[in-house]
Specification:
alpha+beta; 3 domains; six-stranded antiparallel β-barrel; Alpha-Beta Plaits; Gyrase A, domain 2
Length: 378
């Protein structure tokens, strides 16, 4: 068997890896990458994002550029969301679907508008572990005579600066005014005097930006943000933050066996305003007849944490499974996401979670568990 050193050497590393080492971050394997799980501590990093500003190296995520005269119409067939709604400078969170309407990946598509030749341009950000799968799927289904696809994942650094003070701090290093940029807005900007791409998106439930730049600019920006008081944060805080905001983690809460309707992502499905797309017939049937199971939020009593894979019970009978769970640093009690039968997916429904052989009470609650007062609206 391979030892830990051999495993580490086989993992990909971000261009900011040396900075994580300098800060003595604790590292872990994630999606084929060696990534920081924490720097100063998960709780401190979590609180920095909720109350001030924290930042994450998310360079491991897949980054694609797409360009062509019929780009939007080509992409329309691959997602359930109506991309024709997008104006230049707007983005859509959506999902790639297989023929069974299972989720291949959840993605964000940033529409950049038309260039002087009439070609439509866009950026797509996908999950790290699914980058190769997504790329193959897109190339299989896009007409490459009409759409130019480029995988720029290895060439760019991606830094997420999140929290109520993120905007004011980041502004110091960006030439363009960030104030007019709305939630899910984006622009091509000048970062530390160099070209960059900035989007007002994130995975924390707070206001913030994601900045894509060349590696040398990313290194300088990271160091500058640290000096400006932004707290570096790792995957541990990223997970507690996104779970409080009830944001799905691909591979745990959603995958190619779950549909948007089951996962509480029905708002991404625009059946009335767009034509055919992969998986449409399945989603039409689910909308008409309902689904057998739903992803729900659970609140547990005490401090017993429901982890991924734990069984959910109703009156002693196994009815579902936890997909994600943590002790919420902001709320002070355990929270979880789980799939349960639709008839049990109502708010205030009493359930139990089996933890180390014992059943503990849990109640279905509204999602998200936490809603920031600092988030801007679209």
């Amino acid at each position: 068997m391979a030892n830990q050193e051999e495993i580490a050497l086989s993992l990909a590393r971000s261009p900011l890896y040396e900075l994580a080492q300098e800060l003595k971050a604790r590292l872990t394997s994630f999606g084929g990458w060696e990534m920081p799980v924490q720097f100063v501590g998960i709780l401190q990093e979590h609180e920095a994002v909720r109350n001030a500003a924290g930042m994450f190296d998310i360079s491991h995520m897949g980054k694609f550029t797409l360009q062509g005269k019929n780009l939007i119409s080509q992409l329309q067939y691959l997602v359930p969301s109506d991309l024709n709604r997008l104006q230049p400078g707007q983005a859509q969170y959506t999902v790639l679907l297989n023929p069974q309407a299972g989720i291949i990946d959840d993605i964000i598509f940033y529409y950049q508008g038309e260039d002087s030749t009439g070609e439509q341009r866009g950026v797509m950000i996908v999950n790290a572990a699914t980058t190769h799968k997504d790329k193959a799927w897109l190339l299989q289904h896009l007409d490459q005579n009409q759409v130019r696809f480029q995988d720029i994942s290895p060439e760019k650094v991606l830094i997420a600066v999140q929290g109520p003070k993120a905007s004011s701090i980041l502004q110091s290093f960006v030439q363009e005014d960030l104030t007019p940029v709305k939630a899910f807005g984006h622009l091509e900007a000048t970062v530390l005097g160099k070209p960059g791409f900035i989007a007002r998106t994130g995975y924390t439930g707070e206001d913030g930006f994601e900045v894509m730049v060349d590696p040398d600019v990313g290194l300088e920006l990271w160091r500058s943000l640290v000096k400006a008081g932004v707290i570096p944060a790792g995957l541990g805080a990223r997970d507690t933050l996104r779970l409080e905001a009830a944001m799905a983690l691909y591979g745990q809460d959603i995958d190619d066996t779950t549909t948007p309707m089951e996962a509480g992502l029905g708002w991404l499905v625009h059946l009335d305003t767009k034509g055919d797309f992969i998986g449409r017939s399945i989603l039409e049937r689910q909308k008409a007849a309902g689904v057998q199971r739903r992803l729900v939020g659970l609140q547990l009593q005490g401090r017993n944490i429901a982890r991924h894979g734990y069984q959910v019970l109703s009156q002693g009978v196994v009815v579902g499974e936890v997909t994600s769970g943590t002790l919420s640093p902001t709320l002070g009690y355990p929270i979880a996401l789980a799939y349960v039968p639709t008839e049990l997916a109502t708010v205030s429904q009493q359930l139990e979670v089996e933890i180390r052989g014992k059943a503990y009470p849990a109640v279905v609650v509204k999602r998200p568990f936490y809603r920031s007062k600092n988030r801007i609206n679209n």
